Amino acid sequence: MKSRATGSVVRLAVPLRALAQRFSFLLLVSSAIMLMMVGKIDAVLVENVRARVTDAFAPILEAISRPAATTANLVETANELVDLRGENERLRQENAVLLQWQQAAQRLEAENRSLRGLLNYVPEPAARFVTARVVADPGGAFVRTLVVTAGRRDGVRRGQAALSGRGLVGRVVEVGEWSARVLLVTDLNARVPVVLEPSRQRAVLGGDNGDQPLLMYMPPDAPVSVGDRVTTSGHGGLIPAGLPVGVVASVGERGVRVAPMVDLSRVEHLQIVDFGLPGGLAAEAAARGGMQ
Fold first, then answer.
1. Cβ atoms 244, 261 nearer than 8 A
2. How many C-beta atoms lie closer than 10 Å to residue 151's C-beta?
3. Which residues is 216 bridged to in the sheet?
């Protein structure tokens, strides 16, 4: 009797399963349409149901994700342990070097205080600056300049230095009420008095509209090497001494070429700095303004 009943159930289930497979797509489409209609009629109800379903499945999803997250954490921890020894050694070496530089800086600071006291040193006036955004690069084959969003109303004057976060970019050559034009150190008309840090050899950095300006007016036997830092010398009263300009990139038949500290093709913001120097183009511009 049981076998007959089981056979009857199987024979009845086969047509039902075939019928369900045939109309399953239609049922799904109808259900989707009904859900859309209910959502239009009562949006609050649908949102509450969706929130409850999400809350119900959240613990399940969290439980499923835990093994994967745990495995990832274990792998990351193992990699960190492998790299930890090498990183510690590198940090020890860097710390030792930094301690040496700290001791040297402290000695130099004490020496400078002593020498300034002996020489009755008068400190330079505090610099004032305004940060401006670069809005145009009207350069080309014959000119290398930038236009910034700061002008006369912001205290910008002709001859002031333009700096980025790493060093000198150029100087202000034209000033409007709302904007100013900066002549880059790579421009053909740019001339910046500089000094090489290791040898204290003086020179003039001259642009030629290329990416690497040239060190000019140097003796033929001047000690210069690739990698020497180049800073401003302060001569001429236009730009103060000690501003980083670049690094010697090559020494050869083309002369001594300097790679600027800043990638001038990617400058987005500049600091227009007023160092309060008594001479230079800024004083000339102020004198013209007074005469007017």
1. yes
2. 20
3. 204
Domain ranges of the chain: 33-123, 128-291
- Whose CA is closest to 172, among 164, 163, 161? 161
What is the distance, to the nearest Å, from the Cα of residue 163 to the centroid of all Cα atoms in its chain? Answer: 15
Tokens of 107: 């000695």
Query: Positive or negative CA dihedral for 101, 102, 108, 112?
Result: positive
pLDDT tens track for 244-255: 999 999 998 888
pLDDT tens-digit map of 6-59: 555 456 556 666 666 666 777 777 777 776 776 666 666 666 666 666 666 566
Q: Cβ of 105: how many Cβ atoms within 10 Å?
A: 10
- CATH homologous superfamily, domain 128-291: Rod shape-determining protein MreC, domain 1 (2.40.10.340)
CB under 8 Å to 138, separation ≥6 — which residues?
145, 147
Residue 263 has phi, psi (to 5 degrees) of: -75, 100
Q: What is the β-pairing status of strands 202-206 and 180-184?
A: unpaired
**β-bridge partners, 182:** 146, 172
